[in-house]
Amino acid sequence: MTGEQDMPPRRSDRTRAAILAAARERFAADGYAKATIRAIAAQAGIDPAMVMRYYGSKEKLLAAAADFGLELPDLTRLAPAARTAALVQHLLDLCERNDTMIALLRVAATQEAAAERARFLVANQIEPLIALIEPDPEQVHRRAGLLATQMMGLALTRYVLELPAVVSMTAGELAAWLGPAIEHYLTGRPGTARRPHTSGSPHR
Question: Which of 63, 71, 88, 91 could potentially form a cystine with 113 if both were Cys, beta carbons 3.0 to 4.6 Å apart?
C-alpha cells in the first residue's frame, strides 16, 4: 500500500526532471525563440500537454530550467587583490559550462519570468556574498546590484552579443580592466573610484 501511494510523487518528480533536462538542452541548442514545447516534450518522451500542465508556459519553463546556483567564491577567504580575478574567472567558467545561464540572459530583457529569475539570482546569491564583507543591509542591496551590472554585463557582451573586443580577451585581461570597478562596488564609496592604471598595457 505504501509503495503504491508513493508512486505518483516519484513519477511526477521524474517527469518534471525529464522536462527540465530537455528544456535546458533545447534552449541551449535552439535558443529560446526557436525551442518549442513540442520539441521539448518529444525529447522528454512525453505529450506536449504534460509540459504545459507542469509549467504553464514556455517562459515559466525557462525560469524553472534556469534554477541553478552561481556557486560564487567566498570573498572573505581572498585578499582584495585576488577578488576580481576570482570573480571574473568563476563567471567565465560558469557561462562556458552552463548554457542555461546564457539562455536566461538572452530573454530576460523581454520575458518577465526570465527577468524575475535573474533578479532572484542577484537577491539570493549575490547579496549574501556581499553581506559577508558589508554589514549595512542597504549597502548590500546597492553593492549587489552594481556588481551585477559588471558581471551580467560581461556575460552579456561576451556570450550573447559576442563583442569581438570582449570575446578576444583572456580572463586575466578582463580582470585587469574590470578590477577597479568591481573592487569599488565591493568596498568603495560613491565618488571614490580609482582611475584605471594607465602606465603600460593592463593586458600583461
Answer: 63
